[in-house]
UniProtKB/TrEMBL annotation:
It comes from Amorphus orientalis. Signal peptide: none annotated. Residues 20-165 form the Flavin reductase like domain. Belongs to the non-flavoprotein flavin reductase family. It comes from the Bacteria. This is Flavin reductase (DIM6/NTAB) family NADH-FMN oxidoreductase RutF. Keywords: Oxidoreductase. The keyword Oxidoreductase applies. SUPFAM superfamilies: FMN-binding split barrel. Gene3D superfamilies: Electron Transport, Fmn-binding Protein, Chain A (2.30.110.10). GO terms for molecular function: FMN binding; riboflavin reductase (NADPH) activity. Pfam families: Flavin_Reduct. InterPro entries: Flavin_Rdtase-like_dom, NADH-dep_flavin_reductase, Split_barrel_FMN-bd.
Length: 184
């Protein structure tokens, strides 16, 4: 293991990104629709729960992202947690400057946000807060509606720069009183 201990401005950005890639994440597509009907959508892995009471979640978007002003103006959006077999959806929404919505059937949520069909879980949010976070904006949303995962559904996982699948060869039982593990 190579340790980086210099000032943050001296860190090697590629090495830092590789280190972050050691953290396995789920893959989400965040979606919104502007008042003029323009749809926004992007693949993110920067999704996290924030609070159970009130129900808050967050994601972040690069300040240099095309459409950042649309995201900043969005009053509602949805976080669609992708299932293991939705790699094509992830790839579609990860590409800039393409028509991400062409030919895609969508659902419309109670907030008006476009929803990805067959997503593992979907969280519809009302925009609550935005915070500057370096070269990103951190969006915190209050969950106003959600879908629970289908029984037996598996998530799309990203680790080390690649999609991965979960295996059940090494299932580990988490004690019921281990709520600290989830930060709750």
């Amino acid at each position: 293991m190579t340790a980086q201990t210099t000032e943050s401005r001296d860190l090697d950005p590629r090495a830092f990104r590789n280190a972050l890639g050691g953290f396995a994440t789920g893959v989400c597509v965040v979606t919104a629709e502007a008042d003029d009907g323009e749809r926004y959508g992007m693949t993110v892995n920067s999704f996290s729960s924030v609070s159970l009471d009130p129900p808050l979640v967050l994601f972040s978007v690069a300040t240099a992202a095309r459409g950042i002003e649309g995201w900043r103006a969005a009053e509602h959006y949805a976080v669609n947690v992708l299932a293991w077999n939705q790699q094509d959806i992830s790839n579609r929404f990860a590409r800039p400057l393409t028509d991400k919505w062409s030919g895609l059937q969508i659902d419309t949520g109670v907030t008006g946000a476009p929803l990805i069909p067959d997503a593992l879980a979907r969280f519809e949010c009302r925009a609550e807060h935005q915070y500057a976070g370096g070269d990103h904006i951190i969006f915190v949303g209050r969950v106003v509606a959600f879908d629970t995962p289908r029984p037996g559904a598996e998530p799309l996982v990203f680790h080390g720069g690649r999609y991965r699948e979960l295996t059940h060869e090494h299932d580990i039982t988490v004690p019921a009183d281990a709520l600290w593990l989830h930060g709750w």
